[in-house]
Every structure is written in C-alpha cells, then in structure tokens.
Amino acid sequence: MDFNYSENCISIQDKVLSKLDQFTIDFTEKLEKFSKYVIVSGYISILFGRNRTSEDIDIIVEKQSFQNFKSFWNYIEKDYECINSNDPNEAYHNYLMEESALRFARKSSFIPNVEFKYPKTSLDEWTLVKRKKIVLNQYILYISPLELQIPFKLFLGSEKDIEDALHLYKIFQKYINHSLFEEFIRKLNTEELFNTYLK
Amino acid sequence: MSTPNIDLEELEKQKKQNFIERLHFIDMYVEWLKKTPNKEWSAQQKKIIDK
Questions:
Q1: Predicted complex: ipTM over 0.90
Q2: Alpha helices in chain A (DSSP H)
C-alpha cells in the first residue's frame, strides 16, 4: 500500500474503486457542495484495505438551516431517496433536529446507505473541526482523525470494531500523533483493550 | 436423533480462540498490504466487496 501522509491529508493513488467507494464518493461530493461533513464509520478501515463490506456509511454533517437542507435534498433527489421519509420538512424537523439519523440510499435500493446525522456530542463537533482530508485517486473525502477513530473503535468494542482498530493501527502506527492518540485512549477508557489487542 | 449436549464453556473458549486467530490473520494481512501496490490489493478487495 502506497500513500502520502501529512498532518492534514492522506493521499492514496491508483486504488481500484469498489462499488462502496464509488457510492461514498458520489454522495459526499454532492453533500460537500452544501455542508461540511466527516465520515466516521467502519468504511474508513475498508477504504484502507480491510477486506469486508458495510451496509452503511456513517457521516456526521455540520448542522444546517432548513433551507440549506432542503436545497441539498432537491439536489440529490434525482439519484437518492431518504429511507426514513419522503418529506424534507419531516426529515429535518422530526429526525435531524430530534437528534435522529436519516438514511439515504440510491433510488430503488436499500443497501448501501448513508447514515446522515448532525453532531450530538463534543466529540462529534471535534471530529468535524479536525476532519482529515483524503485524496483518493482524483477524489476528495473527509474522515475522522485516526488518532480518534482507532480508540473509538476500541470503545465500541465488538469483535469487528476491534479488528478494524487493529487494521488501522498496524497501517498507520508510524504516522499518527501518538500523544493525541494516547489522550483519546485514556479519555475513552480503552487502555486495557489497547494493551490486549493492539500492542 | 436427539440434540447433542452443549458445553458452553468449551464453545466460549473456541470463540475466543477464533477471535485471536482472526487478529493474527489481520497482522499478516497488513504486512502483505504494506508491500503490495495499491492497484493489486484494491483489485482483490473490489472482487470481495462487489460480489
């Protein structure tokens, strides 16, 4: 695996894109025209080579006005539909503003879908501010900083999450900011999991 | 035919062992990934994901 790593950007070229990559790129390219976003899900480990797929891509989106959300909805509705509601007013007020996620899938399909949510916690806000730019071939994506993503996967704690954490850690351990990484390991109370499975 | 007796302790042990083996496999896979060009590993990954 060849990549260029800097504090704010990881560039990876010549990746043969899977359908999941193409789905994620297409949706986020449209979303970025309207709002700042960050990908926080297991897709991050898949992007960097983990051999598994995922039903959904979790995305945290900066809070929008209803007008901005409606413009985004109108822009994507030719290609995508919201699984929860066909009414943008209901989707915005009854889901997003009530701290529930929306799911968007390509028209007439259910999987994969994007889990679209606004930040709920200070950790969500931090992730949005500190999002990391990924240059994937000629496309741009934004992901959660690995210094948080890996400890957070440990925090989630399922076998699949620990495997994702190990995969990312083994690839990026030479590159990440270790003092930040250790701070999140400590704050998320994942020292024991880290020592058991990642060290 | 009657169903077998189940030793839950034994199954738990086996589950844990399987998990440890998968983690070892990830270690080996990442080592392979690191020395394999993007075009090659991602073409293999695409076959699995696009199935």
A1: yes
A2: 19-32, 43-47, 66-76, 88-90, 122-129, 146-156, 159-172, 178-187, 191-193
